[in-house]
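Protein data sheet
==================
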Amino acid sequence: MPFIDSKITTKLSATQKDTLKTELGKLISTIPGKSESFLMVGFSDEYPLYLGGQALDKGAFVEVKIFGSTSDEALESLTQKICALYEKELGIPPKAIYVKYEFATHWGWNNHNF
């Protein structure tokens, strides 16, 4: 039941959104037991972000929410992969990317809760 939501300072083309969606679908398997089959992805582009009081020309705030929990090692690996993806596809330097993780013990889908 993962959800990856990205707030990005730049405008995203349809092609960029599709590429990011596809690659995030592959990367989510970094977390054991998670796969693209239940992954939901969202993007907010042209989103103003500030770091250290300065406006970011290129920056991203990425939230990864999952049902359950995982190891610190899996999260470290996923952070590195997300940063590499956003740098490659959007030119955002890793020092301008924050990744936040949240773990849920209750998650609803299709009229039921897990």
